[in-house]
Structure prediction request, 167 residues.
Amino acid sequence: MLELAERIVALTPSQMREVPLPETVLDAVHLAQKITSHIAHKRQVHFLAKLMRKQIDDLEPIRLAVDKPLEVRRRETAQLHLIERWRERLIDGGDDVLGELLVSYPQADRQRLRQLVRQAGIEKRENRAPAAQRAIFQALKALIRGDGASDVGDATDAADSDNESSM
Prediction:
């Protein structure tokens, strides 16, 4: 219960709106968020846990509401790591890795990605700003998140304009 109270106090105001809490408990949460003294804050969190034990019969909806943002962040982080791995593999591996990507994501724009990979290799060798690498990342993000192939072109067009302005 104490761990749940600590996690509730750490929520942002927008996340807090999603948590179904009685008014008295909500007031105790707001008070705990305002307290800056470590000991007083700890005491208020303990009081909040006690209040929750007394006033709330079913904690499951509250736990689900508190855990939801955490799961979303974990999923998004894992997805970003996947995108970064694909980008690094594409830059280091070239056409072989591009073939693997196209097997996994057949809707990808082969020609555009190949062009970006070549440009990223040139940027890396010449120690230039990584505009093509950023464009690859954006293209892969649109592809993996399922936003569609049209976003791939938009992200890469922005990189082209960055490359032209840096020359």
Remarks:
- Residues 2-57 form one domain.
- The chain has two domains: 2-57, 73-166.
- The chain has nine helices and no strands.
- Residues 60-93 form the longest helix (34 residues).
